[in-house]
Amino acid sequence: MKELTPQKANFLILSAAIALLVNACSSLPPPVEQMAVSKAVLESASRAGSNEVAPALLKSAMDKMDAADRAMLQEDYLNARQWAEQAQVDAQLAAATARSTKAQKAASALQEGNNILRQEIDRSAQ
Asked: Distance between CA atoms of 90 and 98, rounded to whole angstroms?
């Protein structure tokens, strides 16, 4: 019987690992729930006004969601999940940016209103 050299052992281990990885990837279920959640977050970000405040982030999320849809059609479920998760994160960031910008504008408007009221109070006190 031939002796198992370290190179042959490494090759066999690597071959087995690749076979297991291929088998594991092919048995992944479709990420239907992740796709639905990501699409809902994307829609929410759009309604939050991200297209005006953070258009680049929203576009990035939409592009990644399109990539996830394409991967689903090709039954590449691992990449579909990853693209959908990335789209969700980008959409959440876009929505948070939109909400933050709106809050800053509201705070500025309140501050301006306070300044006007203060000027009126000072005028009537004189």
From this structure: 12
Q: Which residues contact 107 (CB under 8 A, 6 or more apart)?
A: none
3-state helix, strand, coil in the chain (%, to 5): 85, 0, 15
Provide the pLDDT for residue 9. 66
Q: Mapping DSSP to helix (H, G, I), strand (E, B) and coil, where does residue 35 land?
A: helix
- Is the pLDDT at 21 greater than 60? The verdict is yes
> What b/e sequence results for 23-54 when a residue is b if at least 16 CB atoms lie within 10 Å of its CB, and e otherwise?
eeeeeeeebeebbeebbebbeebbebbbbebb
> Which tens digit of pLDDT belongs to each residue from 25-61?
557 899 999 999 999 999 999 999 999 999 999 999 9
Angle between helix axes 55-73 and 32-47 (nearest 10 degrees) is: 160
**pTM metric for this prediction:** 0.69
